Amino acid sequence: MKSGKIKQWLYPASFLYGMAVSVRNKLFDWKILHSTTYHIPIICIGNIAVGGTGKTPHTEYLIKILRDEFRIAVLSRGYKRKTKGYLLADSLCNAQNIGDEPYQIKKKFPEIAVAVDENRCHGIERLYALENPQIDVILLDDAFQHRYVQAGINILLTDYHRLYCNDALLPAGRLRESVSGKNRANIVIVTKCPPHILSVDYNRIIENLGLYPYQQLYFSTFEYGDLTPVFPDVQTGGKRELESLAKDENVLLLTGIASSAGIIEELKKYTRNIDILSFADHHNFTKEDMTAIEQRLNNSKNRRREIIITTEKDAARLVSYPNIAGEIKEQLYALPIEVKFLKEQHNQFNQYVTDYVRKNKRNSVFLGKNSTLEA
Length: 375
Description:
Order of helices and strands: HEEHEEHHEHEEEHEEEHEHEHHEEHE
Distance between the termini: 50 Å
Radius of gyration: 22 Å
CATH class of the largest domain: Alpha Beta
Helix content: 25-40%
CATH architecture of the largest domain: 3-Layer(aba) Sandwich
CATH topology of the largest domain: Rossmann fold
Structural class: alpha/beta
Oligomer: single chain
Mean pLDDT: 91
């Protein structure tokens, strides 16, 4: 059966799903279900579609622009972690007990507070109560649908290659809620853009997204950094520039993310020998997976010219896996990504976010339900 016909059969289920989500949202809109506001700046980063839109890199971008002036906390539910409840990350945490993305953030920014909690309200209250240090701003990861919390800024991400306006509700499409959910966003960012967007495409996207005057629109792309050893204690060479990859160098790309298309496209600029071993998003690696990696290495035509490249998120899970073969450790590198705003939009974005945090610095007052902060 063709995928188009399968999709047609899924539309009735999408309709029922959409009705259920719409009722829930209306209960919040009509104040039957209550959103809670805390007297501390809260910035939510999320989307209305399942799959990767770049939430973690954009969260890291926010950390970088705020960390010199404010004490930051990141709160996530800790997807696929093996623990429950509230947990504040420390130097002994790993991807198994806090989740791969929170662990990635804690490892890159050890000076900030990173916590996980399925109950975001409870997690915020625990972070708010911290005294050493007191938190100035909380970044909520993937919480756009968590309406029990009233964030001061809601940032909605949408993938350039699959805009929410061109998608359908689950299960026929990837939308978690109807397109009207975008109206809750203060900021919409079109992510994963090509570095140079044609004016005709730029204007078409602006028109199709259908934003209101109170909403700001930005465009961002990913920039790739130097290849970084995942196990630096056994890798003597240190970081490698992507340009150092030889055209005949064999690359084993190891990914467990929503989409690896962007990384593949980037690596093709430097080498023509790319072997791909992909898994589902947030995949927990097993002994069988390690065996498969070793077999791929053994099948390589030129063992001396072999390198394993993975994402930072996958690296967060791999370092938590016990007894990885030394051969894998020696050849395993993570490819970091950073967010870059197009058309010099970073100045406006940075100013908007920092002004909001400055205006709404925390104090000892808890506002409670249905209060508002100045955005």
